[in-house]
Amino acid sequence: MPPAIKITRDSIITAATELVREKGTDGLTTRAVAKKLNCSTQPIFSNFPNMDSLKKSVLDKAYQLYVERTFSSMQSCRYPPYKASGMAYIEFAVDEPELFKMLFMRDRNGEERIDDTAESEMIVAMIRERTGLSDEQAHRLHTELWVLVHGLAVMYATGFEEYKADEASEMLSDVYLGILGRFQNKEGVVE
Questions:
Q1: How far apart, in whole angstroms, are the C-alpha atoms of residue 92 and residue 159?
Q2: CA-to-CA distance for 67 and 81, rounded, in angstroms?
Q3: pTM summary value
Q4: Which of 49, 76, 103 is the last residue of a domain?
């Protein structure tokens, strides 16, 4: 008799991530994961105490994929690094709409809010170094521009708008230069 195939924690996370890609978070069930792995539900609960634990692992995997894509984009020289981070966010929403929704469009009530992540601080430092803005201005520029980036990503991920890379890139440049100009010219807030 051949030895039984061991279902690993990583293979479960991979299968669960694929299910989210295919069917969204509503498609992530124990039975669906077991079916995808061609096994019973026993290996899933041997590796995860409950579905919330598995969902958290899939969320972590999705975030890892997003971060890898962002840093790869920032190093590619296709766009300046700051712009590349915004374009990577948008392109992640286009290419991985269900993972994007899971990461950035889920209900976050009750979650601890973490504003000053290492990635965010790195981005703000990059803005300060390249523009000469103060720390407060760099944070504000990043926040204001991120409203546009997130809005575009949501519209593309939900099919509300058709993605056109050149148009998205141009919008990011226009808004970035407008906000930067406002701070550099000390015009204050435009009403």
A1: 14
A2: 14
A3: 0.87
A4: 76
Is residue 186 scored above 80 in pLDDT?
A: no
Residues 133 and 161 in one domain: yes
55, two tokens: 């969902």
Asked whether the CA dihedral 73, 78, 84, 90 is positive or negative, the reply is: negative
Mean pLDDT for the chain? 90
Yes or no: say if 163 and 94 are a contact pair by the CB < 8 Å rule: yes
The alpha carbon of residue 59 and the mean position of all alpha carbons in its chain are separated, in whole angstroms, by: 10
CA distances from 41 to 4, 13, 44 (A): 15, 14, 5
> What would the pLDDT profile of 103-149 be if each residue is shown by its tens digit?
999 888 887 766 557 778 888 999 999 999 999 999 999 999 999 99
